[in-house]
Design goal:
Layout (H helix, E strand, L loop, with lengths): L37 E14 L8 E3 L11 E4 L4 E11 L6 E15 L2 E9 L4 E7 L4 E15 L4 E17 L25 E14 L8 E3 L11 E4 L4 E11 L7 E15 L2 E6 L6 E8 L4 E15 L4 E15 L2
Length: about 350
């Protein structure tokens, strides 16, 4: 955060907050200190629970460090007892599938009593009044919102939701220019650039591993990867769309009949919604009856998502009886983007 020298001056002669008498050329009020005048950048919004808005797998209680939304927030105090403010926050998108940015602009008047600054909004939106604690040495303004609103991830429903709680907010002065309006401040240090890989796109099934090797094609060459043993699985894929929906085609190998003499390929299509939270991609299938939630682990270096089905079902060939049977066990799925 930039540091600029502060110009100190003594103000005298006026006791009203909003104006001075006509014979006072300074236009300042002795209740307002010159070191307060300037523009402040939002540097911290500490929430009760850590969040991962930018999806880099690293959660933080300071929401300013979790994506770009909060980095556009600033407040300017003018020496005539007025202020301008623009505050951008992260909000829950439609259906809780995403995080959106919401901006509110306001202006009004303020008073100073010692190190307490009280703003009163006269136009725009946001809090009607707000109280800050001013630290002239650190050039910071702090305040608490006891019932502040912020977005949080609900692990039970696998969607984002609006939460309320105590928010500890800090602004830090970066320029004496009270008309800067946040223009000259750089927020690069507040934005995490990690984990920007997009989930959007087609992920094809690349491996389907079983605990024990199988020889489904009866070529005497067994493999724990069922894709090497049957072409039935090759068409399995998931398409993640930019609107928070997905479509999945799941193909598998099953018994043609109860006799177990040969295998056949089955395929089914499902769809629903998905959300990404850090290195987790969570799908919620809404087609068919009921809702099924599935958790995948995202690897951004390999552009893959993976999951484990502890009680998956798959065919197994019995070399003694020369028949196929269905068995259950752990199945590890890996889908690769673009394959």
């Amino acid at each position: 955060m930039k540091r600029l020298s502060l110009i100190m001056f003594a103000a005298a002669g006026c006791f009203a907050v909003t104006s001075c008498s006509s014979d006072d050329d300074s236009g300042n009020n002795n209740n307002l200190t010159a070191d307060l005048t300037g523009t402040y950048d939002l540097t911290a919004v500490n929430a009760p629970t850590a969040q991962d808005y930018d999806g880099d797998g690293d959660s933080n209680n300071n929401l300013v460090l979790e994506g770009a939304c909060y980095n556009e927030s600033w407040i300017s105090f003018h020496n005539n007892g007025t202020y301008d403010e623009e505050r951008t926050t992260a909000t829950t998108g439609q259906g809780g599938l995403s995080i959106d940015c919401d901006t509110q602009a306001s202006s009004g008047t303020y008073t100073q009593t010692g190190n307490t600054i009280t703003t009163t909004r006269t136009s725009g939106s946001g809090n009607a009044t707000a109280t800050f604690t001013f630290n002239s040495s650190a050039h910071t303004l702090t305040r608490n919102e006891s019932n502040g609103t912020y977005s949080g991830f609900n692990t039970a429903t696998s969607v984002w939701a609006n939460l309320t709680g105590n928010l500890q907010i800090t602004y830090e002065k970066y320029t004496n220019n009270d008309d800067d309006n946040g223009n000259s401040d750089s927020d690069d240090d507040n934005v995490s650039s990690e984990g920007r890989a997009e989930v959007i796109g087609n992920f094809g099934l690349s491996t389907l591993l079983t605990a024990t090797a199988q020889d489904l094609d009866d070529d005497s060459d067994s493999s724990t990867n069922l894709l090497n043993e049957s072409n039935c699985y090759a068409s399995s894929h998931i398409v993640f769309n930019s609107d928070g929906t997905y479509t999945e085609e799941s193909s598998s190998s099953n018994l043609l009949s109860s006799l177990g003499l040969e295998l056949t390929c089955n395929s089914e299509t499902s769809n629903g919604t998905f959300i990404r939270n850090g290195n987790k991609v969570i799908t919620r299938m809404t087609s068919g009856s009921g809702t099924i939630t599935t958790n995948y682990t995202l690897d951004m270096e390999t552009n893959t998502i993976s999951r484990t089905d502890a009680q998956g079902e798959y065919p197994s060939f019995n070399n003694v009886t020369n028949i196929y049977t269905m068995t259950s066990g752990s199945l590890n799925y890996t889908f690769t983007k673009g394959s």
